[in-house]
Design a protein that fits this description.
- By secondary structure, this protein is mainly alpha-helical.
- About 50% of the residues lie in helices and about 10% in strands.
- It is built from 14 helices and 5 strands.
- The strands form 2 sheets. A 3-stranded antiparallel β-sheet has the order 3-4-5.
- Helix 3 runs antiparallel to helix 4.
- The chain is globular.
- It starts with a strand and ends with a helix.
């Protein structure tokens, strides 16, 4: 079954193709221009870079102090195999410029650094809109005026509505697709790439079924949609609660900035890490 038909519902193939080329932060801005904030951009970009094996996020049991008799489970960020060869966007340099193959971070400290060093929401959104070449979908006067109000033009609204319809249809039918058409389920995951993280309210048991399906078919012959298996190998980032962990950490970080200017030396990530 073609990628532009889900549950016997046909979608505009040209519009859906945006999902094959746009990074998830850009799609999020397209879907919710005003509501998307720095936390959304950071979470989706960290997940996307991890999926692309630029970064690696691992949970490890570590002994925090030699005198501590117990090991604690902590989440770490390190570089991965594609770190040196990945062609990053300008806004992604804030994610890759603070780490190298000889260093690592606690996840909290990593997202704190990114949050602290990234420009404000609107500046980052303008950069993403420009780099991802979707400026033509916005009313120029609203994107670049002093108020920085982001508003889609008529064509942008049409594209947003079709992409939302497509994503919602996948959300509502993913379990049935896995059962009835496993090959289409695999194609969808390969097609969406990091935009898979835009799907909401997917039950854990459905993700587990998808994970089992991927493991089963990993070594089978691939068609045009399966070339991403070799790049991503569909890491456990798909099926863990890392996304929620990042979201919760960013909420903590944002609250710590509520009464303190961003970039202030008064904030030490060590003081906030638990």
């Amino acid at each position: 079954m073609p990628i532009d038909t889900i549950a016997n519902i046909k979608f505009d193939k040209e519009i859906i193709s945006y999902l094959s080329v746009l990074k998830p932060a850009a799609v999020m801005i397209l879907l919710a221009p005003s509501e998307t904030d720095l936390k959304d951009i950071i979470r989706l970009t960290v997940l996307d870079l991890t999926l692309k094996k630029v970064l690696s996020i691992q949970r490890k049991e570590v002994q925090l102090h030699p005198s501590d008799p117990y090991k604690r489970l902590r989440t770490f960020v390190e570089t991965d195999t594609n770190f040196n060869t990945y062609r990053k966007s300008v806004y992604e340099t804030y994610f890759t410029g603070i780490i190298d193959e000889y260093s690592y971070f606690h996840l909290y400290s990593y997202v704190f650094r990114v949050y602290d060093e990234l420009p404000v929401d609107n500046t980052v959104k303008k950069s993403i809109i420009k780099e991802q070449k979707i400026r033509n979908l916005f009313s120029i006067v609203f994107v670049f005026d002093t108020l920085s109000v982001f508003r889609l033009n008529r064509n942008g609204v049409k594209i947003r509505n079709e992409i939302i319809r497509y994503i919602v249809t996948i959300e509502q039918n993913l379990e049935q697709i896995i059962e009835d058409s496993p090959k289409q389920a695999l194609r969808l995951v390969s097609f969406l790439k990091g935009n898979f993280f835009l799907l909401r309210n997917i039950p854990a048991e459905v993700l587990e079924k998808l994970n089992n399906l991927i493991q089963l078919h990993k070594k089978e012959l691939k068609d045009e949609y399966f070339d991403l298996f070799d790049i991503f190998e569909f890491s456990d980032i798909f099926f863990s609660d890392i996304s929620e962990e990042i979201k919760e950490l960013l909420e903590k970080i944002e609250s710590s900035y509520s009464s303190i200017e961003r970039g202030s030396s008064d904030i030490n990530p060590r003081d906030l890490y638990i």
